[in-house]
Amino acid sequence: MSWPWIVLLALAAVVVIAAEWSRLGSFTGKIAGGEARKARDRKKRKASLKLIRSEEEEFAESVQRDLADLPTIEEKDRRS
Q1: Which of 50, 66, 70, 79 is deepest in the core (most CB within 10 A)?
Q2: How far apart are CA 21 and CA 27, in angstroms?
Q3: Distance (Å, rounded) from C-alpha 29 to C-alpha 39?
Q4: Distance between CA 68 and CA 33 in Å, rounded?
Q5: CA distances from 10 to 5, 6, 7, 23, 25 (A)
Q6: Rounded distance between C-alpha atoms, residue 49 and residue 34, angstroms
Q7: Cα separation of 49 and 27, whole Å?
Q8: Do 35 and 29 touch, CB atoms closer than 8 A?
Q9: Domain spans of the chain?
Q10: What gap in Å lies between CA 21 and CA 26, rounded to an integer?
């Protein structure tokens, strides 16, 4: 490998690092900064939430249970 190829490879690496620098900077800021604290606090708040079921959901589940309990007609029974 000659020296111009090594220089081009180094330049390509620099371009990739420069293009991704902002994303890497925001990633490290989220881990060690104030956003990490906010994320942990939000996770704690979400863990303490309680799911409230609506009457529509309960009604839909009861209809599904009732439909599942209905007897079915087999193909051979339908023909006779």
Answers
A1: 66
A2: 10
A3: 12
A4: 52
A5: 9, 6, 5, 21, 21
A6: 23
A7: 28
A8: yes
A9: 3-71
A10: 9
Pull the structure tokens for residue 70: 């209905």
Q: How far apart are CA 73 and CA 55, in angstroms?
A: 32
Matching residue, tokens 């994303």: 23
**pLDDT tens, N- to C-terminus, the chain (80 residues):** 688 899 999 999 999 888 887 777 666 555 567 777 888 899 999 998 887 778 888 899 999 999 998 887 776 666 65
Q: Rounded to whole angstroms, how far apart are CA atoms 59 and 4?
A: 73
Helix, strand and coil percent figures for the chain, each rounded to 5 = 80, 0, 20
- Rounded distance between C-alpha atoms, residue 66 and residue 71, angstroms: 10
Distance of CA 7 to the CA centre of its chain: 41
Cα R_g (the chain), whole angstroms: 30
Side chain identity, residue 42? R
pTM of structure: 0.33
